[in-house]
TrEMBL record:
One of its GO terms (molecular function) is calcium ion binding. This is Diacylglycerol kinase. Pfam families: C1_1, DAG_kinase_N, DAGK_acc, DAGK_cat. The keyword Cytoplasm applies. It comes from Poecilia mexicana.
Length: 720
């Protein structure tokens, strides 16, 4: 029986966030799933006319969200939510009979929330409600579409009392003959010219240079509209904010020809090198004009997008003085060094930007433009926020969303620059992805890479002093750290896994290159269980803290089961042809390239030389226990460290500092491991189950990395 909360027909903000997490992990689209519930589809028997009853509704959710099971209470709450919407609707609407919900309304609601192009969403919703297929929607059908958009907008934080009249005005404008109906062309044209609707439908990319990249925003202090100059009022998200130039407007004012966004490139080669300001009307908040040094009243001044200089309207004199890009001049790729070329001058398809231009970068002296890659899926919602902030701090042409085709386009765009740096924002997997792409690109200079840690473990970022996780501090401080960093080489290693029986079908090996570590045994077993459960129930692993708690749970379980006991009997290890002697107590072997594993554990530990102890010298392989005590770890020495682990308890002791290190077994420039049975393994945090095989690890190359200066306690970096 449903609880009282379930029968109220409302969703809490927590419910809505949970629903969004499910949708983010699904690869299906509503338009694909709805076909299965139409006549002739696999699930047609679950529809009654145009309606879904509770059983069919739950099946729709499981199919659309790609989950084997969906919480029954949550399913009931969503079902009641759609039923209540019918009761709250206009009396003129037909209501679902028999206590069901309309399949069209459910599909329209989810199509608004899912990722996709606004034009496709507009076409889909039109065809969804065009029941008779005559190519027309009447006013009642349009009202139903608007109702679903309003409900989605409400939970996304919009002020729906302001948005509804905007959409009503759109309908009035496109119904030019007052017939009360609209066709597909009118519907799409009206929607594509309505800025608030495009933002609601998930517009991701500007169509041409000078267009704003809008997002809905809540303002914590008095803020004024750049069009009507009135204050933005309301308790929710009061207006639209441009990610690139910070221009702010009311929702309804976005359609009233606001000032254009700042340019991101020059239109002709004659403009190359002419460093001119790009002024945007701004709420200068009593700042001083940097020409007359008098205070600027609200909306009585302008701000340069690149150097952040502020002036009165009357103090803006074009071209005097030149723009120097301000405090971030070493990082910004200014528009006057980016210029268009013809298809004949550059025939490579990678050179064509999403908005249809073919752009190149002119030679730059004395600065080091920063190429930024952001994985928006890292760190929960952190990646999306970081992406938006960098679009405002730098030129959007130098900030790339890795979800849109990976790093290749960005590397290709910067390929001819002699001096530039890269900042990759993500976890260890994202860093490895980028380093692989740099290896494959034919660029004249391999740029050094800095890391903004957004993942869970962030071991690479830790050992390069970029910290254990970005906590949301000012990104200008991050850019200052990048400027002050120094370059070091990072060893990269090739891993070749050869099954002893080619017929054994194990999991695919995740990587062929190792940047951080390789392990086999107890820690890989925990990681494999964690990974398998995350693949099965992604909604349970949506934050860094939850991930760590789940990892701890699996580690506790492994400590009781000891699934990797007697590891010595299952494998043999040789280092540069020299066999290693393993003790019976070991349950895991770790091969380390960097001094951080499991989110900050240093399994090799610190090396301290005591009086009279022999000092380790650089050689291909060291296995002598006395020499290993003084052997130091270096990410650039073309050597690996081999460490033994006695179990989960020892791993926990090392992580918490109760024990200084694992068992040092060897330091080597090459290692071969032969296994006699299926064992869990992992490379750089990606686990898999491997049948009997031979693993050979050899040095591949070195990557240029940036290591941060030693951090102070007040720095933005947060170690574990």
């Amino acid at each position: 029986m449903a609880s009282a909360d379930d029968t109220e027909g409302t969703l809490t903000p927590v419910d809505f966030i949970q629903l969004q997490h499910y949708m983010e992990e699904s690869s299906l689209r509503v338009k694909d799933v709805i076909k299965e519930f139409h006549p002739g589809g696999r699930y047609a028997k679950h529809t009654s006319g145009e309606c879904l009853h509770l059983e069919g509704f739950c099946l729709f959710l499981k199919t659309y969200l790609e989950v084997e099971s969906f919480p029954p209470n949550f399913c009931q709450k969503l079902f009641n939510y759609f039923q209540q919407a019918e009761l709250d609707g206009s009396p003129k609407r037909s209501t679902s009979h028999g206590g069901g919900v309309f399949l069209r309304d459910v599909s329209c609601y989810f199509s608004v929330l899912e990722e996709g192009q606004p034009r496709e969403k507009l076409e889909f919703t039109f065809k969804l409600y065009d029941k008779d297929g005559n190519g027309l929607l009447d006013s009642s059908e349009v009202d139903r579409i608007i109702a679903q958009m309003m409900r989605a907008a409400d939970y996304l934080g919009w002020d729906v009392t302001e948005l509804r009249p905007v959409l009503k005005d759109m309908m009035t404008a496109i119904d030019v003959d007052d017939s009360g109906t609209v066709n597909l062309e009118e519907w799409v044209k009206g929607g594509m010219n309505n800025v608030p609707l495009l933002v609601l439908l998930g517009l991701r990319m500007t169509e041409k240079d000078g267009q704003h990249i809008w997002r809905l925003k809540h303002f914590n202090k008095p803020t004024y509209c750049g069009v009507c100059e009135n204050m933005l009022l309301g308790l929710g998200k009061q207006g639209l904010y441009c990610n690139c130039c910070a221009y702010t407007v009311h929702n309804q004012c976005a359609n009233k020809n606001p000032e254009p966004c700042a340019r991101t490139f020059v239109k002709t080669k004659e403009e190359i090198g002419k460093a001119t300001h790009d002024w945007i009307r701004a709420d200068c908040n009593a700042s001083k004009c940097q020409v007359c040094f008098k205070k600027i009243k609200t909306l009585a001044g302008k701000r340069c997008v690149w150097c952040q200089e502020m002036r009165h309207d009357e103090c803006v004199v074009p071209g005097v003085p030149k723009c120097d890009c301000g405090d971030l001049k070493d990082h910004i790729l200014p528009p006057w060094v980016i210029y268009p070329v013809s298809k004949e001058e550059d025939t490579n398809l990678l050179s064509v930007t999403p908005d249809g231009h073919i752009l190149q970068i002119a030679p730059i002296l004395d600065t080091h433009p920063l190429l930024v890659f952001v994985n928006p899926k890292s760190g929960g919602k952190q990646g999306e926020r970081v992406l938006r902030k960098f679009q405002g701090l730098l030129n959007p042409r130098q900030v790339y969303n890795l979800s849109n085709g990976g790093p290749i386009r960005g590397l290709h765009f910067f390929r001819n620059l002699r001096q530039f740096k890269i900042l990759v924002c993500g976890g260890d997997g994202t860093v490895g992805w980028l380093l692989d792409a740099i290896d494959k690109m034919n660029i004249s200079v391999h740029p050094p890479v800095a890391v903004l840690p957004l993942g869970t473990g962030n071991d690479m970022a830790r050992c390069l002093r970029w910290g254990g996780g970005y906590e949301g501090s000012d990104l200008k401080e991050v850019l200052k750290e990048v400027k002050d960093s120094r370059q070091i080489p990072l060893d990269r290693w090739s891993i070749k896994v050869t099954p002893k029986n080619p017929q054994d079908a194990g999991d695919p090996v995740p990587y062929e290159i190792m940047n951080n570590y390789f392990s086999i045994g107890v820690d890989a077993s925990i990681a494999h269980r964690f990974h398998s459960m995350r693949e099965k129930h992604p909604q349970k692993f949506n934050s860094r803290m939850k991930n760590k708690l789940m990892y701890f749970e699996y580690a506790t379980s492994e400590s009781f089961s000891s699934s990797c006991k007697n590891l010595k009997d299952c494998l043999s290890i040789t280092c540069c042809g020299k066999p290693l002697n393993l003790c019976n107590s070991l349950e895991g072997i770790a091969v380390l390239n960097i001094p951080s594993m499991h989110g900050g554990s240093n399994l090799w530990g610190e090396s301290k030389k005591t009086d009279g102890a022999p000092e380790a010298v650089h050689s291909e392989v060291i296995t002598d226990h006395e020499l290993l005590k003084t052997a130091t770890q270096d990410i650039s020495d073309k050597r690996l460290e081999v460490v033994g682990l006695e179990g989960v308890l020892e791993m926990g002791q090392i992580y918490t500092g109760l024990k200084s290190a694992g068992h040092r077994l060897a330091q080597t420039s090459e290692i071969t491991i032969s296994t006699a049975k299926a064992l869990p393994m992992q490379i750089d945090g990606e686990p898999w189950m491997q049948p009997p095989c031979e693993i050979k690890i050899t040095h591949k190359s070195q990557a240029a990395m940036l290591v941060a200066a030693p951090t102070k306690p007040s720095s933005f970096f947060q170690f574990k």
